[in-house]
Specification:
Rossmann fold, Arc Repressor Mutant, subunit A
Length: 539
């Protein structure tokens, strides 16, 4: 089955399968799957293992293992003496520089077939975040950017994993956005992803998005890539990409995942994309790692080995205690001088001295007050400044006051989008919200509360979406989630997303059934952590 991707004998019933084992001739894997170009040495081992007469089969497992080791050694020696053409698949002597069949160069820069991947521009979209209508100046982060530049220099030689840590609203995502733009302009390959905004624990969700972003394809097309043996010769990598396209776990083995194969497949896609675009270094970003599913965390840990020798800068936000990192950037609030620049719109041009939050300065022992950038955004939107004592001192109160100043229809539109998890298409919103409320979307975009990226709408900060959703009256919130549940169910959304809305719609029996199914799927995929979360929600 590993050689041909199918069973040697198949039938409608177990009895018929047994009869075929007894009576049918042994299928030769080289004839069953000629497109796989199975080596003769492996084909002979497979035929011997399937022999009808016991005396013709391997007598012990050790005997078969020894034969497989000899076959592997022979194949490795043959592989070292030949080079496979990346376009037509012809094996050429390793001394040849060009393919004897199609003329493609065999040495130097890798040439990848483009049958499965349509040609695109030289670099992907620099920022994988939706564009903001009105972003405040990026100030006070010169030390962090300099540190990131130093780590990027190391990443030109080998993998470097960097963690970006800090409390909600400190500007982690903004730093990632600015860094992504900066390195894309320098000619790096830049791609990133984040968990589903609703909080649903989608199996490999961020990595599926990351793989699609690398190839600039729709995630649904990953299944096609996984079947392209000319594009991706390594069967383990293809299996990993197939798992990203449709997570199923390791069949026949309970509680075991295919995270290793996914790590191999993702590493192969990074190398392939670098080669296709003639780029040398990549920056991969995963935001909100603490909200990722267990399988994604497992793959991120395995990537340290899969990409160890590759020129990759892997940046993870909120990865502490989840994924080991080589270095960490700890973000604090802005000092008063930088906060003033932030509010007045003057970008910082000089290097700022780092002072930790609530740490006495050596000179005078006075505590330094530092302010969260997201809090300052609310103050600016409310028309305040540094000397206004009438403004709310807490972030949540500032957000609430800003939302309360919106017209009623704008509030309803924002509530609807927040109930989706902070992200939805205009079509999905139209299926749930009052059309008159949706007329206020342009105002929300203008005020910087919502970002538009094509047909997709995003609340500009997850904390804003969570707070707005929490402010909805309980009965109205349940009714809204019931409508959303119907919409996502009709659209065939993953069960994990349906479970989130069923839970919030307070539909006990339906919620329990969906969560039970989610738990079973998580266990089958090897994600015990997600299964536990689903069980807790069901209880």
């Amino acid at each position: 089955e590993l050689l041909t991707d199918q069973l040697p004998f198949e039938a409608d019933t177990p009895t018929k399968v047994v009869l075929r084992h007894i009576n049918d001739p042994i299928p030769d894997p080289r004839q069953t799957a000629p497109h796989r170009q199975i080596p003769d040495v492996l084909g002979d081992i497979c035929v011997k293992a399937l022999s009808k007469k016991p005396a013709d089969r391997f007598q012990t497992a050790a005997e078969m293992s020894a034969e497989l080791r000899r076959a592997r050694a022979a194949l490795d020696a043959n592989r070292a003496s030949t080079t496979e053409c990346p376009v037509c698949g012809t094996k050429n002597p390793s001394t040849m520089r060009f393919c004897g069949a199609c003329g493609v160069r065999l040495t130097g820069e890798m040439v990848a077939p483009t049958s499965s991947i349509p040609p695109k521009g030289l670099t992907p979209k620099p920022s994988f975040y939706p564009p903001l209508a009105s972003a405040r100046p990026f100030v006070g982060r010169e030390p962090e950017l300099e540190r990131l530049d130093a780590l990027a220099g190391e990443a030109s030689k080998h993998l470097v994993v960097v963690g970006v840590e800090g409390e909600i609203g400190v500007g982690k995502t903004r730093l990632l956005r600015e860094a992504a733009e900066r390195y894309a302009q320098r000619g790096w390959l830049v791609a990133g992803a984040s968990p589903h905004p609703s909080g649903a624990l989608l199996a490999y969700g961020p990595l599926r998005q990351l793989a699609a972003n690398l190839l600039e394809l729709d995630p649904d097309q990953l299944a096609t890539i996984a079947q392209d043996e000319k594009l991706i010769a390594d069967p383990l990598a293809r299996a990993g990409i197939a798992e990203l396209a449709k997570p199923e776990g390791l069949r026949g083995v309970e509680d075991e995942s295919r995270a290793g194969a996914v790590a191999s497949g993702l590493a192969m896609l990074v190398r392939l994309t670098l080669a296709r675009r003639s780029l040398s270094t990549a920056m991969l970003v995963v935001d909100d790692v603490h909200r990722c599913d267990g399988l994604t965390l497992a793959v991120l840990r395995l990537l340290r080995a899969a990409l160890a020798e590759d020129p990759i800068l892997l940046v993870l936000a909120d990865a502490r205690s989840h994924v080991p990192t080589d270095a960490s950037l700890e973000l604090g609030g802005l000092e008063l001088e930088d906060a003033g620049r932030f509010l007045t719109g003057r970008a910082s041009s000089s290097e700022r001295r780092r002072v930790d939050v609530e740490t006495p300065t050596p000179a005078n022992g006075v505590l330094i007050r530092r302010l969260l950038p997201f809090y300052l955004e609310q103050i600016h939107a409310l028309g305040g400044d540094m000397g206004d004592d009438t403004l709310p001192p807490r972030l949540a109160d500032a957000v609430a006051q800003r939302v309360e100043r919106l017209p009623v229809r704008a509030q309803r539109a924002l509530q609807c989008l927040s109930a989706f998890g902070g992200r939805a298409s205009r079509a999905d919103l139209a299926a749930v919200a009052d059309p008159r409320d949706l007329e206020a979307l342009d105002e929300l975009i203008k005020k910087g509360l919502v970002a538009e990226d094509g047909d997709r709408l995003d609340v500009t900060h997850p904390f804003l979406a969570e707070l707005v959703e929490a402010f909805i009256p309980a009965s109205a919130r349940r009714e809204l989630h019931q409508k959303i549940l119907d919409v996502v169910a009709r659209a065939g959304a993953p069960l994990e997303i349906q479970a989130e809305h069923a839970y919030r719609a307070n539909v006990p029996m339906r919620t329990f059934m969906i969560l039970e199914r989610c738990g079973d799927l998580a266990l089958a995929r090897g994600d015990a952590a997600a299964a536990v979360e689903h069980a807790r929600a069901a209880l």
